[in-house]
UniProtKB/TrEMBL annotation, chain A:
Domain Hen1 N-terminal, first and last residues per copy: 4-252
Methyltransferase type domain sequence ranges: 301-403
Name under which the protein is recorded: Small RNA 2'-O-methyltransferase
Family: Belongs to the methyltransferase superfamily. HEN1 family.
Basic and acidic residues bias (residue ranges): 480-496
Native organism taxonomy: Bacteria, Bacillati, Actinomycetota, Actinomycetes, Micromonosporales
UniProtKB/TrEMBL annotation, chain B:
GO terms for MF: kinase activity; phosphatase activity
The entry's keywords: Kinase, Transferase
Entry-linked NCBIfam families: bacter_Pnkp
Protein name: Polynucleotide 3'-phosphatase /polynucleotide 5'-hydroxyl-kinase /polynucleotide 2',3'-cyclic phosphate phosphodiesterase
Source species: Micromonospora avicenniae
One GO CC term, this protein: cytoplasm
Domain (Polynucleotide kinase-phosphatase ligase) ranges: 463-836
Pfam family membership, one: AAA_33
Domain Calcineurin-like phosphoesterase: 182-377
């Protein structure tokens, strides 16, 4: 219904040979049915000196929604299960994988470098100018340069403002892309075919399972030597994971990590840990495991276990006879179960491990009577006014013998480059405490609930700002009169 | 004829040999569903009712089912031979686990008759010698039943007596559900006769005295009944005087009384047991010295006749000295009595040497109100619909009564400290009493409330748990969530997907004659709970909360507090605190502009689409223009793209209408449109004229911060009124307004003529606004045709379910129902929100 545009211009003479290469006559307007609408091919200009072919993809938003529906769970899925974004979105206007797949259909032989009429020309680099007036470009115009320039293109990527009426909103995620260079037409088309979706980097719903093969085919001859091949491959294939995980993303798990987020760089997925040294997350796990081992616990709770990094370590240690992971996110528990391979463990192993959905703001009788509990990078995900509820649930009600708590040390944040002052390490952190703040909290909790407290740090200690992570071990002390527990089976045995 | 008395709730064991007629007897006297037959269970687990090797499993299953029935309070009859002690022991155990009385009915027929009956049955294979052995077991059984714990044993001898027997049900002593009050429930008196007299007088009772001037009875002109929660005696100055009055009132039918642990101990002493004269018993014994032996013996028989707890008023009220947990209410067993008298203790003693009491009320989830005494507290406090009204009169505190059903506390101060407390009265628990448990909300749940019922699927509850736990405000402050709102029926008028005519038709069809059309503000829904006192009130520390439609803090601090201050001031300036006699108010409002809260969403979701469209289409048109100039046949395509361009521009204009610069609260306004609740009242029954009038007064009090809601009241039968409102809507939406919400004028809780709850509001959105919902070109005829196929049933059903839950939550807020129950309702609204429904509706 609307238009996504790509124009291809050559000044090779005779320029109208472009029609032969594309197998589309310059004096005709042709239309092709593609899965999400109609693709039109026409020539805004066509003479000896200069010839421009336009591919206009007329996206039918209803068919688009229909295609997504099929992708999501077969025809039985009701039309009511979608997000608003599926109806009001940029697909009808912005170049993306939709345009790439339309290209693949409409310019099939050109993409392969075949031409019956002009075989030699097809194999010859010719002066080309490609324009995509609206291209969604994650990471900004600079990324477009990074992926196209090494291929010999002169890249002009002009950011499009988000809304002229509100200049303060800055640029949109779209650029007006112009590529000029001397290239074989087939190469040019293959570059676009691979790189348009890479730059878009949105989730796809209709990717074929032979995605890897397609990438290798389209990238033949240029991808292997591309300096950004890592980024290209990752983004291109990320779609596969997106496909698999689509159903689960509705309540996406916030990963419990306190490494600073890459500041909207394209360098996603890289490991921030220095080469050859364990990451802070690994050192933190080790510290927690050591504290647990010290406590002599054999039946342990990992409260807010996330996707189960610590559980995996606990499961591998025979001293733990019963391991319970809880999380408020059922999605996180699904990931943890997968990570632990619960469905494949032998029964005796399987019986040691339980995963329960539980919230640390509600008392849960199942959590009572354990030797130890871990709150690793959990408390900072709770709004401060809800902390008393957590304290009651964990220290008052569940009352494990030992509680190991870790949380970021806010003072250390100044040591993270790229973490602006005042920002937290994770988007979901509700607070990050200084050492004094954490100490005050832990001392109050210990005092109120009758625990003894030992504080330390995890990670390299900085003389000024301390360690990146704070760790507290609370061990149950004399039963506080206010928090005495009932007999396990109160009066049950009493005879009537 | 033999009459068999059986408690209404009992586990009845039929006892008899094979062929004694147990199954026939069971069929005649009990419902088939009440009878659990061992034969049937054997068949169930082993496909053969004679398979003795399956007996263990069969009885396992039988006991399990019996347990389920007894837990639910259902009479259960076990049809098995029950000739062996171990078999009967199993039944007694099940009965005791559920605190019901085990009863045995023995059917004793001559062996020859039993054999004759067994022999003719093709499905019975047992031999004569087995029957003989059974008969021998039966003989032995007689002497054992009572010892084994059967509280009643009925023996029927011979076929004639068996045939002639009748079953008669008897109520348990504690079952006084027929007494509906009103009641004045009096806390622990402990011999404080003077204070008791004063309290009764203050409650409006008239005292009747004997010739010596001693009160021996009291009557209430309004026919109220007094209820004493026990501990009448010990420690105080005149235990006999208290007993004389209470015994008189009970005998005259003006009062009922449950025993306290002190009466229990007194009785043991009076019976000559070796009881230590501690905790004030010495004083009572000394005072009784002065009384006649007849009086003392009357006291003993009075105390002896007291029933440990009462279930009153159709099961809505339970009175027991030390309280009673739900599983024990209406049950009878030693441990039930022990709980009622002494409460639950942890087995420890505190620093004063007194037993540590387990705070059972904190876990209480029953529907009956429990009123009790036993533990002196400085101030009675409701905890999960239970209240302890022992305010330590004898220790110099007060004597307190609870008026039921008014839930009103009345007390008189002690004349002096009569007895020094072993532990200071002020030692109140430091922890919150109303704590929420996972079991209150998690898993698949069926919820019944005053406006209907629904089942929350486990997966919805799981999703809601995550949102509630990670993002929502403190449950104490989360009193209500707005229900989702359905749009009007789809319009068939050209160019319209929604039109006022259809909104009006919807309500007309539901039998509504007057509606109010309220301007639909395009902002973000804000629910404001604000206390008069900036530092707190009934909801705990903090002066209020402003949250979103999913219960999240609105802006976060410090803006939310600033906003609350502003609202609090305006309410004060408008004089509403005093006028509504409340110290808190719950407001439903829209916060404007949309961009204040949803700026990110606008930029991410809406502006991007506009930017792409506004950039793409000129380029497309340029290319097509060039092609047209070359004489190519692109005319139609060019026209279409020109229309798309217009649509994208119209779309951009639509969202831009809701963007205004704000900084902090500067530029932000609040448009309240309903005052949902205040102290002890839900305002769901007030009409929208009332709500909007209060909203106007807030606007008048602070015109800078509050935005009024423009509206039209429409009489649906009046064509002119309907036409005027339609024109009003057209003008409103043409000027960039989102649209309107049509509501039954009668108010939130309006019902149809048939008595069912109405949709509380139906939205009717403007044509331009719908572009940002359905897409820039949604009104192309072809698209519109498809969109008109939208189905509203699911959305409407959801809206009504959420609305009912919300009304129930408001009632609960007004009635002071326990937090866990209110929270379960609000939680269910959130859980409903994870139902998959077309988000464009």
């Amino acid at each position: 219904m609307v238009g996504v545009l790509l124009t291809l211009t050559t000044t090779h003479r005779p320029a109208t040979d472009l029609g032969h290469l594309l197998v589309k006559h310059p004096d005709r307007v042709q239309s092709f049915d593609v899965p999400v609408g109609t693709a039109h091919v026409f020539y805004p200009e066509a003479d000896e000196q200069r010839c421009t072919a336009a591919l206009l993809l007329d996206v039918d938003s209803l068919r688009l929604a229909g295609a997504r529906r099929r992708g999501r769970g077969g025809p039985s899925a009701t039309p009511e299960t979608f997000n608003l974004g599926q109806y009001v979105n940029d697909r009808p206007y912005a170049a993306s994988s939709l345009l790439a797949s339309a290209m693949a259909k409409v310019f099939r032989s050109a993409l392969r470098g075949e031409s019956r009429e002009r075989a030699e020309l097809a194999a010859t680099p010719i002066p080309l100018e490609l324009r995509v007036p609206v291209l969604r470009c994650r990471g900004g115009a600079e990324v477009a340069v990074r992926v196209f320039a090494p291929l010999g293109w002169t890249v002009e990527a002009t950011p499009i403002p988000l809304d002229e009426a509100y200049p303060e909103w800055g640029d949109s995620r779209y650029v007006d892309l112009r590529l000029t260079g001397v290239q074989r037409l087939a190469d040019a088309l293959n570059h676009l075919y691979v790189l348009l979706p890479v730059l878009d980097d949105a989730k796809h719903y209709w990717v074929a399972p032979d995605e890897v093969e397609k990438l290798l085919r389209a990238g033949a001859g240029w991808l292997a030597g591309h300096p950004e091949r890592g980024l290209i491959t990752r983004r291109y294939l990320a779609h596969q994971r997106a496909l698999a995980g689509q159903a689960l993303t509705q309540l996406a798990e916030e990963r419990l990590t306190d490494e600073p987020l890459p500041a909207d760089t394209v360098d996603d997925g890289s490991d921030t840990a220095a080469q050859g040294r364990p990451s802070l997350a690994a050192r933190r796990r080790a510290a927690v495991l050591a504290a647990l081992a010290d406590s002599g616990a054999s039946r342990v709770l990992d409260l807010g276990c996330g996707s189960g990094a610590l559980l995996t370590a606990l499961a591998g240690d025979r001293r733990y006879t019963e391991i319970v992971g809880t999380d408020v996110s059922s999605h996180a528990l699904t990931l943890a179960a997968r990570r632990l391979r619960l469905d494949r463990l032998p029964e005796r192993q399987r019986n040691r491990i339980n995963l329960w959905q539980s919230a640390l703001t509600y008392r849960d009788d199942r959590l009572r009577g354990y030797d130890a509990a871990v709150l690793m990078e959990v408390i900072e995900h709770l709004d401060p006014p809800r902390l008393p509820a957590l304290e009651d649930v964990v220290f008052g009600h569940a009352r494990p013998g030992t509680v190991v708590v870790t949380t970021p040390n806010a003072e250390y944040n100044v040591r993270y480059d790229g973490l602006p002052a005042g920002r937290f390490r994770h988007a979901d952190h509700r607070f990050e405490w200084t050492r004094a703040e954490f100490t005050a909290w832990a001392e109050r909790v210990a005092g109120t609930y009758g625990y003894r407290l030992r504080l330390s740090g995890v990670g390299d200690e900085d003389p000024e700002v301390g360690s990146p992570t704070q760790l507290a071990v609370l061990t149950i002390d004399v039963p506080d009169p206010d928090h005495r527990e009932p007999q396990l089976t109160p009066r049950k045995e009493e005879r009537p | 004829m033999t009459v068999l008395d059986i408690p209404e709730l009992a586990l009845v064991a039929l006892v008899g040999v094979s062929g004694s007629g147990k199954s026939t007897f069971a069929r005649r006297h009990f419902l088939p569903s009440q009878v659990l037959s061992s034969d049937a269970f054997r068949a169930m687990v082993a496909d053969d009712e004679n398979d003795q090797s399956a007996s263990a499993d069969a009885f396992d299953a039988l006991h399990y089912v019996a347990g389920k029935r007894l837990r639910a309070g259902r009479l259960t009859v076990v049809d098995a031979t029950n000739l062996q002690p171990h078999a009967r022991a199993g039944l007694v155990r099940v009965a005791r686990e559920h605190d019901v009385l085990p009863v045995a009915i023995v059917l004793d027929v001559p062996e020859a008759l039993a054999w004759a009956r067994t022999e003719v049955r093709a499905d019975r294979t047992l031999g004569r010698q087995v029957l003989t052995r059974m008969q021998r077991d039966l003989r032995r059984t007689y002497g054992q039943l009572a010892r084994e714990g059967f509280r009643k044993v009925h023996v029927l001898r011979g076929p004639e007596e068996i045939d002639a027997a009748e079953v008669r049900y008897e109520k348990l002593f504690n079952d006084r559900r027929e007494l509906t009050g009103p009641f004045d429930i009096v806390g622990d008196v402990h011999g404080c006769r003077a204070e008791l007299e004063s309290l009764l007088v203050r409650l409006g009772w008239r005292l009747h005295r004997d010739e010596q001037g001693r009160p021996v009875d009291a009557t209430h002109p309004a026919g109220r009944t007094a209820v004493f929660v026990g501990d009448l005696v010990d420690r105080g100055p005149d235990s006999p005087g208290v007993l004389r009055l209470v015994m008189g009132m009970v005998a005259a039918g003006h009062a009922i009384c449950v025993p306290g642990n002190h009466e229990q101990k007194l009785l043991r002493r009076l019976r000559g047991r070796d009881v230590r004269l501690t905790h004030g018993l010495a004083e009572t014994m000394a005072q009784l010295e002065a009384e006649s032996p007849e009086f003392v013996s009357a006291v003993a028989s009075f105390v002896n006749g007291l029933v440990s707890h009462f279930v009153l008023d159709g099961g809505r009220l339970v009175v027991a000295h030390a309280g009673l947990k739900e599983e024990y209410q209406g049950r009878a067993s030693g441990r039930v009595r022990a709980f009622a008298l002494f409460g639950e203790t942890t087995g420890e003693t505190d620093e004063y040497g007194l037993p540590v009491r387990y705070p059972w009320a904190r876990d209480y989830r029953g529907s009956a109100m429990v009123v009790y005494g036993h533990t002196p507290t400085p101030e009675p406090e409701w905890v999960n619909n239970t209240i302890c009204i022992d305010t330590g009169c004898v220790f110099g505190g007060r004597l307190t009564a609870l008026r039921y059903p008014e839930r009103e506390l009345v007390s008189v101060a002690a004349e002096r400290e009569w007895y020094a407390p072993a532990r200071p009265l002020t030692a109140a628990p430091a922890r919150p009493d109303e704590v929420l448990e996972l079991g209150d909300v998690a898993g698949r749940r069926h919820i019944e409330h005053g406006y209907g019922s629904l089942t929350v699927p486990a997966e919805n509850a799981a999703a809601a748990l995550e949102v509630m736990s990670r993002f929502a405000v403190d449950p104490r402050w989360l009193t209500w969530l707005p229900p989702t709102m359905a749009p009007c029926s789809t319009s068939s008028q050209e160019g319209f997907l929604e039109h006022p005519a259809d909104a009006f038709a919807d309500y007309r069809a539901a039998g509504v004659d007057r509606v109010v059309c309220e301007e639909k503000h395009m902002g973000s829904r804000a629910v404001v709970l604000v206390c008069r006192d900036r530092d707190g009130g009934r909801f705990g520390p903090g002066g209020g909360v402003v949250h979103t439609r999913t219960g999240r803090p609105f802006f976060g601090e410090p803006l939310d507090t600033e906003l609350l201050d502003r609202v609090r001031l305006a309410i004060g300036a408008a004089g509403l605190w005093d006028e509504l006699e409340t110290d808190w108010l719950l407001l439903d409002a829209e916060l404007l502009p949309w961009s204040a809260k949803a700026g990110g969403l606008i930029r991410e979701q809406y502006a991007g689409v506009g930017a792409a469209g506004r950039a793409a289409l000129p380029a497309v048109r340029e290319a097509l223009d060039s092609a047209a100039a070359r004489g190519l046949p692109v005319g139609e395509l060019r026209d279409r793209m020109a229309r798309r361009h217009d649509e994208v521009r119209a779309y951009s204009a639509a969202y831009r209408a809701y963007v205004r610069p704000t900084e902090g609260l500067r530029g932000v306004t609040l448009a309240p449109f309903a005052v949902l609740a205040g102290s002890e009242s839900s305002y769901a029954d007030r009409d929208h004229g009332w709500h909007l009038d209060l909203a106007d007064r807030l606007c008048a009090a602070d015109p800078e911060f509050f935005t009024p809601t423009r509206r039209q009241v429409v009489h649906l039968a009046d064509e002119a009124s309907v036409a005027a409102a339609t024109d009003w809507w057209l003008a409103l939406t043409a000027a960039g307004g989102e649209g309107m919400v049509v509501k039954p004028y009668a108010g939130l809780a309006a019902r149809s003529k048939r008595g069912s709850l109405l949709q509380p509001g139906i939205k009717c959105r403007g044509r331009e606004y719908l572009r940002i919902i359905y897409g820039p070109g949604y009104d192309e005829p072809e698209q519109l045709k498809l969109l008109r196929q939208r189905s509203l049933g699911r959305k409407r059903g959801l809206a009504l379910r959420e609305h009912g839950l919300g009304l129930a939550a408001l009632d609960g807020l007004a009635d002071g129902v326990p937090l866990w129950r209110r929270h379960a309702l609000v939680f269910a609204i959130l859980a409903c929100e994870s139902e998959p429904v077309d988000p464009r509706l």
